[in-house]
Amino acid sequence: MNPLAAQKRRVQKTQFFQDLDKLDQYMHDDSDDTVHTSEVQQPSFALHEPSRPKKRTETFNIRRPRTAYRPPSTETSANNRVNERDLVSTKGKEGGPASSGAKNIQRTYLFLHPEPEFGPLFDKDTSYIIVDDKLDLKEALKDLRTSADVSKTPMVRMRWLVDCFRDHTVHDMRSSLFRVRGMKDPFCILDNEDVQAVAPAPKDAKSAMVMCAFNRPKLERPMTQDDFAQAIDFVQKVGLLDYQQFVDGESASEEVQPGRIGKKPESAECFNSRLQDFLCKEKNDGSSTNPNLQTMYILQQLAIYYERVGDKWRNLGYRKAVTALRYQQTPVRTKQDALLIRGIGESIADKIEEISTTGHLRKLEMAKADPHEQCLIIFMGIYGAGLKQARRWLSQGHRTLEGLLYNAELTPNQKIGVEHYEHFQARIPREEVRRHAAIVGEVLSSVDPGLQVIIGGSYRRGKADCGDIDLLITKADASLDHIRKLMTQFAIPELKKRGFLKAELSVSQSHDNGSKWHGASVLPNSSAWRRLDMLYVPWDERGAAMIYFTGNDIFNRSVRLLASWRGMRLNQHGLYENVMRGRGRTKITEGKVLEGKDEKKIFELLGVPWRPPEHRNL
DNA sequence: CAGTAG
DNA sequence: TGGCCTTACTG
DNA sequence: GCCA
After folding, report:
1. What is the pTM of this model?
2. Tens digit of pLDDT for each residue in A556-578?
3. Which nucleotides of B are covered by protein (CB under 7 A)?
4. Between these two residues, A522 and A70, which has the higher pLDDT value?
5. Is strand D within 7 Å of residue A50 (CB)?
6. Measured in angstroms, what separates residue A516's CA from nucleotide C9's C1'?
7. Is there a contact between A424 and A418 (Cβ–Cβ < 8 Å)?
8. Euclidean distance between CA atoms A1 and A8, whole angstroms
């Protein structure tokens, strides 16, 4: 075996797991004296087993200290009282099983996954934040992924918990032995605001290990803006990284539109916000560029390539590698350096070395030159065709759009997609979007003066040109049924009659709860078919629908992700609370609607500062 | 449920 | 060796 | 692709 790999593996086995093993031992000796729940008898701490869920709640009993434990003495502060109450207060207080044994203290713990992206979810019920011994305050906070009010929650090293078990006592959290690096006082995180000055954690501490315990009395939880920045960052790393825009603030040359005059209005702004989002996750030492941008960009290209060829797992691997590189403060040039980073293995390490020595990657050059690739890209641009279909056509020997049209079996939609390929690919000038909407609006008000048309999509975000036309149709106090009826029975037929709507690509007819119309429209005296999407929105859902239909993509996903971090759920119908999620994030409960009407209110409830649409171009 | 779009 | 993954809608 |  490669000695480097072995060394790396050793490094990655964090102290945390060893600690858990120790804990496990302490838990299981003396079993005569301790009442274990059934779950404890299972390997509660076997978190490193492959089959374990990302997070799980374990219930177990802490045997009450025989001798060493004593109630807080007079010299102990209020902080210690919190400490003691929390440890002693049991689930049994709420009718749980533990109230029986005075010698048992039952706690419910949440163990969390080492991967930062599945990282700990700080919850308002969290009692303690217990941090891997290797992490410092800054790292821990970053991986806590919250700006909820953690200030009142004690934060200590893993060692504290281990020692508590070992000694059958509750140790004083303020002992320097248990202090998280960078903290002065375990009970007051806010007093440690000089987190910038904290020395960075060692490389091998990359895997954050935080454990949160439950059952704490309610904490009020003021929302801060930072969560949203984190959500954006999280989503962006999955999204595309536009290297050119990043480096010189200009849009990539392939995207330059011939009709564009001067610089795009959103360009500078977009650049700035990107840079900010980017920088907010970087160490704030004044250096404004990541030393690995070049490498990241090329690996990102490779990730996109693998996505195209349908290898989702390689795609994922490369994306993770890019993410890992993003967090590196120093240039990674050699294979050895690269191998030490979690998320980068043999193969990518080789490629990193190639990139930093030659400046490019042969594999990528080859892939780009591959005619199959170019066909695939063209075919996937056809409306109604995705990766599967494009590959099918390719393997059937098709190489051109014309070939498809005459020789391939096309669904009606795909046929339209091919016939109008050029038009559908073209960007639509802002002014033209407005005129399309005006025609729809005119017809709609003749059907029912109450109907409203709102232009969403990139138009609402202020872009100079749009990929398609997104219209949101609603009416004051109307239900979805009502609006749909007006549209399908009167408005759509009328628009067709006028020759405005040319094709229906995806229309909800069979389903009674359908709410969207996808098709093509064309202005009078024009031949350019445009993709037109309409969304029928009940009055009460217009706020949520606006967010959804305004986008952009990344923005939507960020907000939704943030909602799920908050225990809420956001979709085009509304913002829901009390969403229960089970294994993997599967929904158990739909949750209760919090808000749907008011876009601003939804932002507010999510704790996201209001962003005008123009600022949602992530 | 597969495929697609966002 | 097998798991890794955002959500909703349509046909 | 990476990782346990």
Report:
1. 0.53
2. 776 776 776 666 778 888 887 76
3. 2-6
4. A522
5. yes
6. 9
7. no
8. 12
Identify the sign of the CA torsion A463, A466, A470, A471.
positive
| Spatial distance between the Cα atoms of A69 and A381, rounded to a whole number of angstroms | 69
pLDDT, tens only, A368-424: 777 877 888 788 888 888 777 887 888 788 888 888 888 888 888 888 888 888 888
Q: Which residues does nucleic strand C approach, with CB less than 7 A?
A: A 50-51, 54, 117-118, 238, 312-313, 316-317, 506-511, 513-516, 557, 560-561, 564, 569, 571-572, 584-585
Question: Buried (b) or exposed (e) across A349-361, using 16+ Cβ within 10 A?
Answer: bebbbbbbeeeeb
Average pLDDT, chain A: 61
Q: Which of A154-158, A447-451, A611-615 has the highest mean pLDDT?
A: A447-451
**Position A533 pLDDT exceeds 50:** yes
Please determine, for residue A594, whether its predicted confidence score (pLDDT) is greater than 60. Answer: yes
| Rounded CA–C1' distance between A319 and C4, in angstroms | 12
Helical H segments across A178-264, by residue range: 226-238, 243-248
Q: How far is the CA of A12 from the C1' of D2 (A)?
A: 13
Contact A150, A180 (CB under 8 A): no
Neighbours of A235 (CB within 10 A): 20
Q: Pick the most confident of A114-118, A263-267, A466-470.
A: A466-470
Span CA (A585) to C1' (D3), Å: 21
Neighbours of A430 (CB within 10 A): 15
Q: How far is the CA of A557 from the C1' of C9 (A)?
A: 17
Q: Is residue A110 within a helix (H) or strand (E), and if so which, with residue range?
A: strand A104-111
For the CA of A603 and the C1' of C6, the distance in angstroms is 20
Residues A231, A570: Cα–Cα separation, whole Å: 14
Q: Among all strands, which nt has the closest C1' to A386 (CA)? A: B4
Å: A571 CA to C8 C1': 9
Cross-strand bridge partners of residue A111 = A56
> Could you give the domains of chain A?
105-195 (3.40.50), 279-369 (1.10.150.110), 371-425 (1.10.150.20), 428-539 (3.30.460.10), 550-617 (3.30.210.10)
The protein footprint on chain D, as nucleotides within 7 A of a CB, is: 1-4
A312 CB and strand D closer than 7 A: no
pLDDT band at A136 (very low <50, low <70, confident <90, very high): low
Angle at which helix A293-308 crosses helix A362-369, to 10 degrees, equals: 40
